[in-house]
Design goal:
The protein is an alpha/beta fold and 621 residues long. The chain folds into two domains: 209 residues, P-loop containing nucleotide triphosphate hydrolases (Rossmann fold, 3-Layer(aba) Sandwich), CATH 3.40.50; 269 residues, P-loop containing nucleotide triphosphate hydrolases (Rossmann fold). 40% of the residues lie in helices and 11% in strands. The strands form three sheets. It has a seven-stranded parallel beta sheet, sandwiched between helices. Strands 10-11-9-12-13-8-14 form a seven-stranded parallel beta sheet, with helices on both faces. The longest helix is centred in the middle third of the chain and has 21 residues. It is globular. Its EC number is 3.6.4.13. It comes from Echria macrotheca. It catalyses: ATP + H2O = ADP + phosphate + H(+). One of its GO terms (molecular function) is RNA binding. ATP-binding RNA helicase involved in the biogenesis of 60S ribosomal subunits and is required for the normal formation of 25S and 5.8S rRNAs.
Amino acid sequence: MTMKRKLDQNDEPSSPARADEGDRALEQKEASQPGQSHSKTEPSFAELGLDPRLVQAVAKQAFEKPTLVQRKAIPLALQGQDVLCKAKTGSGKTAAYVLPLLSGILKRKSTDPSTFTAGLILVPTRELADQVFKAIEQFSAFCAKDIQATKLTENVSDAVLRSLLSIVPDIIVSTPARAWQCINSAGLSLDKLQYLVLDEADLVLSYGYDEDMENISKALPKGVQTIMMSATLSAELDTLKGIFCRNPKLLDLNEEIGAEDEKLSQFYVKCAEDDKWLLGYLIFKLQLIKGKSLIFVADIDRSYRLKLFFEQFGIRSCILNSELPINSRIKVIEEFNKGIYDIIIASDEKNEAFGDDAGAEDQEAMLNDSKRKSDDAGNKEGAQPKKKRKTVKRDQEYGVSRGIDFRNLAAVINFDLPTSATSYQHRIGRTARAGRTGMALSFVIPKELHGKHKPTWIKSTENDEKVLGKIIRQQGKLGRTVEPYNFSKKEMEAFRYRMNDALRAVTRVAIREARTKELKQELLRSETLKRYFEENPAELSHLRHDGELGRTTRQQAHLKHVPDYLLPKDGKKALTRNVGFVPFKKEDKKRGHKRGKPSGRSFKVGGRKRDPLKTFKVRRK
């Protein structure tokens, strides 16, 4: 593929050196005028040189103006330049590479009608592949007849994959493992490939795709333009740059967009292990946080324990983990973005299994060892010693802490603190996106309290205070603050007995049965009924993923309602000493009561008619 050069004032190709000088001069000019209005210097999408049909699709998506990463990356990509871009999550990286890729294919098709696969987009997880594929469909809405895109992440046979590739799609979205599988089986030809995109490139090697990426690099033709997008610059990124790029243009844009970080509020709470559960109950039952929340826990069992715990209080939630089928996971994310669900409990398994400094081989070994131990523990628990339980294969291409766009997410709750500051950064990047405000709240277990509450403690919390120190230093370098948030322990104690009752009901047997039950339900929905729901899409809306799983647990109806006498004298506000991020429910003046108030009977101590102590009568014999 020939490199396209930038034209000068005389419409003649300029040398690369002169083009670079022009870019630097423009950057210096923008930097020298900090007080000038951005509207005069920032170009629109139409001025970036994109195909008019793409500009029309962008306008339909209500994008007002290009973000910084789009303004910098799109012109370079349209010139044929290899691009290595580091930008924070939520900055618009997907559109920054999808739009120039589509524009290049449309321009080529206007002169060369031959069909071949022109673009290959590699992502580390199946959830991200689905998101990228939908972005391609949205941006190609006005040129759908000219763009054929295929996603290769479904669990199908090689014959079905060859059938999908027989149409010779213009763009393929895949994980590296599935892409190499198709190349190796002669179903995918890269002989005429023009564009290669690596999204979340720093994660590709961390997910164990080393051998797949090496094989793909050998199958690529010469002159392929490479675009690499990442949230961090790491050793893995340097390795990929050396394999796939030719003198790429490096865009390190994090420090230039720090002004938007003020919309993200970060807090932490130091508490005992059992206090985590008490605070979780209070926050969501009393609706101290308004809006949709994403809760991160350390492992799969932990996610089911928290879901069953919430069910004791009538709090509905969904679960995301690597055991669930990909179709179910994608549907949960879609319906969460539509506002059907308010709480998702996600197990961030890969980030908990290893730290930042572990190599890909060590990470895979640790994951396999962790899986083997958990399976062995499951065999011993609640079963005969000689009887082995069937193990469920976990999806190694699962991940929700990176890249996934959870829309209008109000809060990220680190119920279990991650084991590294980098993982923390990726988690909180799910909120405060696209100019919206957001909040991150993390529970931290002090060293002296680690392991004190045996029923709920986990090993990863042993170093919470050290990780918190790294997080505070990392966020400080980015100009952000992580502040302590104080809950009134005195006012919380009135609810502790309810928390203990709920925890006692969530036994290990109940967790195992709930985990098996949901997996069976989701497999049925994902495979057996897939064709039926394709023909009857309206029926799919009746299948909810936040239903109760705790039918085998001890039912305690009284826990689902919060009587008024448990609340502090000053109401919910007294539970917190500072109310910086807590958007309490406003009073509905028309109805004369507070919205979101728990249903059910309640009474006020001291009232004449509602006080059961004053209406209780004793009959004499």
